[in-house]
Amino acid sequence: MTFSAKRLPFITIPVAVVMLLLLSSCDATSLGGQTQTLRFDHNGTTRSFEVFIPGSVTDSPNVPLVIAFHGAGGSGSLFREQTRLDEQANEDDFAVAYPTATGANWAEGCNCVRPDLDGVDDVGFAAAIIDEVEKVMEVDRRNVYVVGYSQGAVFLHHLACESGDTFAGFASVAGMMSVPVSESCSRTAPAHMMMVNGSDDTVLPFDGQDAGSQSLLSAVDTMLRWRDEAACVGGAVRTTERVGSARADVRRYGTCENGAQVHLYELLDHGHEWPAPDVAIEAEISSFFGLRRDDF
User: Fold this and answer.
1) How far apart are CA 46 and CA 234, in angstroms?
2) Which residues are 147's β-sheet partners?
3) Interval 99-129: pLDDT, tens
4) In a domain, 54, yes or no
5) Alpha helices in 84-163 (DSSP H)
6) Other beta carbons less than 10 A from residue 146's beta carbon
7) CATH number for position 237
8) How confident is the model at residue 41, as a pLDDT?
9) Measured between alpha carbons, how far is 22 from 53 in angstroms, rounded to an integer?
């Protein structure tokens, strides 16, 4: 059997758009914070990530941390430019780490991508990032969260299955749980899970895909899996609402074990993308994690 090096095509960003991102995004200095690139040995391989620390928390104890996983073919630094997570962190006083995969993909637990076949331990790497960040600031280990985009979101669901209570919450954007992971997932604690998926996604379709070992659950079935893992009771509260400039069909389970919640935002007429700045999905994620200062 032949295995592809990549799980799925990486959605490239035109050079002009990349340049616009680089020119228009705020750097760490203008945000009043600092960015460091940290490298360390993990299982005999040098791994790296960038971390943004807002100036307001440089000397603070117990700083919340968000770890953000890029999509296939990407990197931590490119993902940092693609999102407004630094700006949100600056508003809400949390740090953000942007790790980079060993190759094109994260080891998502399907045994269908190169890192899985090579035995890369990205679950262990994710946990080790917390220890490395603690060398440059004091992390509030009760408030460490995970964001994943595209294949990074597929990995996020595997990480949520395998990580116990290491992470306080998860937000996946444009990705679902793989079928192989769904067959083995046995989380030991309820997962506080937010999902954001475009209704018109043709890369990782909202209704899932049947592709052998690369098959994916639908977004709704992924949500229902996390509902069951969190022992939520009652039906989902379903509303149509505005999320920034976007219109979204939102399903929320809010009565779950240990205060967990499971939310699915279906962005109507949106495809496979990290939502544009005017959607302000970063603020929505921060609010779901309980980090939004405006919510206090």
Assistant:
1) 47
2) 68, 171
3) 999 999 999 999 899 999 999 999 999 999 9
4) yes
5) 85-92, 114-117, 122-133, 151-162
6) 26
7) 3.40.50.1820
8) 98
9) 19
